[in-house]
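My convention is simple: the sequence line spells out the residues, with the fold written below as integer tokens. I include a record here:
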Amino acid sequence: MAVAADATAPVATLRRRVSRPMVLGAILIVWLALFTVLRGRQTLTLAAADLTGLHRWLNDLNDSIGANRNSNPLFLYFFNEIRLAIDNLVTFAQSLISQPTGGRPVPQIGWLGVVGITGYVSWAVGNWRVALLAVAGFTFFGLQGLWQESMDTLALTLSAVLVALLIGIPLGVWAGLSDRFNRIMTPFLDFMQTMPTFVYLAPLTLIFLIGGASAVITTVIYAAPPAIRITAHAIRSVPETTVEAADSLGATRSQQLLKVLLPMSKRTVVMGVNQTIMAALAMVTIAALIDAPGLGKTVVQALQSLDVGTAFNAGLAIVVMAIVLDRVTTAAAARTEAARRTGGRLRAWRRPLLIAGGIAVAVLVHLSHTYVWAAEFPGSGSTGSHIASAADTTTTWLQDHLSGLTNGLRDALTNVLLNPFQTLLTDSPWWLVGVTLVALGAVLGGWRAAVTAALCVGLLVGTGVWSDSMTTLASTAVATVLVMLLGVVFGVWMGRSRLVDRLVRPTLDAAQVMPPFVYLVPFLALFGATRFTAIVAAVVYAAPVAIKIIADGVRNVSESTVEAATSAGCNTWQIITKVQLPMARNALTLATNQGLIYVLSMVVVGGLVGAGALGYDVVAGFSQGELYGKGLAAGLAIVLLGVMFDRITQAAARRTRA
């Protein structure tokens, strides 16, 4: 027995000495060595106009569906009916606030009525400050000359949110009450929230065509998961003692739900509505690629023509709408909580004011319905012209005076990081990259992550866009490294200083409200239409979530542990590197996971401003019928990259916790 113990001792010692970073380093060294020998072989490169058999089959499928759309029973009695119902909802919403209808030259409710309703609702569910913000924001749309575009965006957003909540809240309640249903729903919700927004567009246009109805359906699919998840969490967060007390009083299952669970979870559910609205607004703007009307369409057209001024003006309107909707729903959640604490009683003076305000709004709606001056926003939108002109002037100045700095930064990052890594990925044999990814998955996440990586690699090869996938992977990896660098620096700073956290966190919260499109505009002005523009926009888009996660992880490190390290003589740098960051490994891994997903989503959107690769393939598929199949395959490739990243990083997080 002693001999056996002595024999196993060196093995155990060897295992302790061979750490995970050492294994990762060995994998990379082997990859580089084989790359120098096999460079340029079996790279599966495909020219921009070339198609594979899968792409042609998808084109034929698209043509076949188009030819049989009105005769196939599945479309005739199911998909077409869904599209018709959503189309009627969208048409109704647009006829109310944005589009002329029924022989009228203006919508049913003109600008004065819309502004009045907005201010009244914002005050009723929030407070007077939010109401002033909402009125000012909606008035600003008209001053920009973007009233109709803004109302189109609002109509699509509200239509999608209505449908998403009608589906999401009941499913969320069910998931909150049933462990089995929650287990069934979780993988689907994970998958839906992992996929970048671009991916929803192509397959749904295959079924529902392009236009407002398809945009709303796409948005519903994207925006429903937050409503389901947060509602389920709210139901599950109600204290068991409260439920048991209701049960002991003889309350039935439905009475418990209606009298206890839903009232006590109302504030959290309202926050779920907030997240649903934000997701819907982000998706509606991107759905401009499938001919959805509104501000997103203006931004897309301006980006494609490199018209920074117009894009900035419309992007500013999107930001203002996002801020207004976010603040109104946040204030509604706060008022809901206050009402719960006070038993739902209104102050004596508030009820008469609500009634008087309702009468005033009814008058404004009547005026806007009856008179053209109250229906059409006055003025020519000169403010928007001034904003666009100022943006163009600023862009010209930046390009004339800062081109040396911006071009130097762009060239340094491109030549030092992006080009070498992209060359390594695209010029290596496909099977070598695949084996490396599987090996990395095994080391970081275990055998399940390795199996997932192997399946994703095999399917990526099958999509026929391997080279473009590797180009997107290179941009995503470089941007994620930059996100994590920012995340660690600012996250540690915020985690160690509550003053810094209070100062920086509002900016991060505001940054997360803005839809992805908006991030492209300023960097297009700075760096032009290049893949570097997409990378910088992706970093700025993804950094806030990574910073907040790391800051919370550092702050959650036990104070007694930090004090013990300080008393042992550790300086600040040693405390950060030897104590706080190692003990916040879970937060670091989660930040990497979320950073990857956010970056991938933004890098793909960057296909509009010269990022190329999979994003360009998807956009080209919408605009060029012969490339539809390739665009659909590129969308699948994006999903596969997202799933692979997500599973490996999640598995790594679980192993870190273990």
